[in-house]
């Protein structure tokens, strides 16, 4: 250490020298040596840089180097991120993952092997041919299953999720959509026409009955009342002339 020690330092240093930089740090800061060419310079940082881990002591807080294969670490023996070409497993950096585990190139970690999982088969579909269920005798029916869990790189692959088999149906003709629609429209129009005809006939019948009733009432009003016929026996009775 250069004997020229200064108290008026910059950058978080408590004590420093012109030759070695920081010699001690202010409270809560970490002391770390940085190499510049052939010389090491002491600096004071709020957190340790990549490849170092921090240790706090009563008199000084220091940054120490991680292992050579470790990019970041919590302690010297516990790595949190490995350098390129290594896989992290339980705080250690390994070139090859243990048995029962596989290397995840995305996270650079050793992870458990995941096998494919699927659902049960669905019921067989209706017998079809070229998207139709009529107009043929032999067709195909299918059933499917869904993938619940996709496998990892070394996991068991998924089986086929679709099955097909031949089927036989009773041959029947397909009803054309346009013709069927036309027939339904004609039936609807005919039904409406019949209903309208019945309604008109009922209206005419009611009108005729009302007209006849009014005609009878008018005839009764205009026809003179019949006089009561005289009693012929009384008219022919003899006249008493004695008086």
UniProtKB/TrEMBL annotation:
<keyword id="KW-1015">Disulfide bond</keyword>
<comment type="similarity">
    <text>Belongs to the R-spondin family.</text>
</comment>
<dbReference type="GO" id="GO:0005102">
    <property type="term" value="F:signaling receptor binding"/>
</dbReference>
<comment type="subunit">
    <text>Interacts with the extracellular domain of FZD8 and LRP6. It however does not form a ternary complex with FZD8 and LRP6. Interacts with WNT1. Binds heparin. Interacts with LGR4, LGR5 and LGR6.</text>
</comment>
<dbReference type="InterPro" id="IPR009030">
    <property type="entry name" value="Growth_fac_rcpt_cys_sf"/>
</dbReference>
<feature type="compositionally biased region" description="Basic and acidic residues">
    <location>
        <begin position="175"/>
        <end position="219"/>
    </location>
</feature>
<dbReference type="InterPro" id="IPR036383">
    <property type="entry name" value="TSP1_rpt_sf"/>
</dbReference>
<dbReference type="Pfam" id="PF19028">
    <property type="entry name" value="TSP1_spondin"/>
</dbReference>
<dbReference type="InterPro" id="IPR006212">
    <property type="entry name" value="Furin_repeat"/>
</dbReference>
<dbReference type="InterPro" id="IPR043601">
    <property type="entry name" value="Rspo_Fu-CRD_dom"/>
</dbReference>
<dbReference type="Pfam" id="PF15913">
    <property type="entry name" value="Furin-like_2"/>
</dbReference>
<keyword id="KW-0677">Repeat</keyword>
<dbReference type="GO" id="GO:0016055">
    <property type="term" value="P:Wnt signaling pathway"/>
</dbReference>
<dbReference type="InterPro" id="IPR051514">
    <property type="entry name" value="R-spondin"/>
</dbReference>
<feature type="domain" description="Spondin-like TSP1">
    <location>
        <begin position="116"/>
        <end position="170"/>
    </location>
</feature>
<dbReference type="GO" id="GO:0005576">
    <property type="term" value="C:extracellular region"/>
</dbReference>
<keyword id="KW-0964">Secreted</keyword>
<feature type="domain" description="R-spondin Fu-CRD">
    <location>
        <begin position="11"/>
        <end position="110"/>
    </location>
</feature>
<dbReference type="GO" id="GO:2000052">
    <property type="term" value="P:positive regulation of non-canonical Wnt signaling pathway"/>
</dbReference>
<keyword id="KW-0716">Sensory transduction</keyword>
<dbReference type="GO" id="GO:0008201">
    <property type="term" value="F:heparin binding"/>
</dbReference>
<comment type="function">
    <text>Activator of the canonical Wnt signaling pathway by acting as a ligand for LGR4-6 receptors, which acts as a key regulator of angiogenesis. Upon binding to LGR4-6 (LGR4, LGR5 or LGR6), LGR4-6 associate with phosphorylated LRP6 and frizzled receptors that are activated by extracellular Wnt receptors, triggering the canonical Wnt signaling pathway to increase expression of target genes. Also regulates the canonical Wnt/beta-catenin-dependent pathway and non-canonical Wnt signaling by acting as an inhibitor of ZNRF3, an important regulator of the Wnt signaling pathway.</text>
</comment>
<keyword id="KW-0325">Glycoprotein</keyword>
<dbReference type="InterPro" id="IPR000884">
    <property type="entry name" value="TSP1_rpt"/>
</dbReference>
<keyword id="KW-0732">Signal</keyword>
<keyword id="KW-0879">Wnt signaling pathway</keyword>
<keyword id="KW-0358">Heparin-binding</keyword>
<protein>
    <recommendedName>
        <fullName>R-spondin-3</fullName>
    </recommendedName>
</protein>
<dbReference type="InterPro" id="IPR044004">
    <property type="entry name" value="TSP1_spondin_dom"/>
</dbReference>
<feature type="region of interest" description="Disordered">
    <location>
        <begin position="174"/>
        <end position="243"/>
    </location>
</feature>
């Amino acid at each position: 250490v250069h004997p020229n020690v200064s108290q008026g330092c910059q950058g978080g240093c408590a004590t420093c020298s012109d030759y070695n930089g920081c010699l001690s740090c202010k409270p809560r800061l970490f002391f770390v040596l940085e190499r510049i060419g052939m010389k090491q310079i002491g600096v004071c940082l709020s957190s340790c840089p990549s490849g170092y881990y921090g240790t706090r002591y009563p008199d000084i807080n220091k940054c120490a180097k991680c292992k050579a294969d470790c990019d970041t670490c919590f302690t010297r023996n516990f790595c949190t991120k490995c350098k390129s070409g290594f896989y992290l497993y339980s705080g250690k950096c390994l070139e090859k993952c243990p048995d029962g585990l596989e290397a995840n190139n995305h996270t650079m970690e050793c992870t458990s092997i995941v096998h494919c999982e699927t659902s049960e088969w669905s019921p067989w579909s209706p017998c079809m041919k070229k998207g139709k269920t009529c107009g043929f005798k032999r067709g195909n029916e299918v059933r499917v299953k869904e993938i619940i869990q996709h496998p990892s790189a070394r996991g068991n692959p998924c089986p086929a999720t679709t099955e097909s088999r031949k089927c036989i149906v009773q041959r029947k003709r397909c009803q054309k959509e346009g013709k069927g629609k036309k027939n339904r429209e004609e039936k609807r129009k005919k039904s409406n026409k019949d209903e309208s005809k019945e309604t008109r006939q009922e209206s005419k019948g009611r009108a005729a009955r009302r007209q006849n009733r009014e005609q009878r009432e008018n005839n009764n009003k205009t026809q003179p009342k019949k006089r009561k016929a005289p009693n012929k026996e009384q008219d022919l009775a003899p006249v008493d002339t004695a008086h």
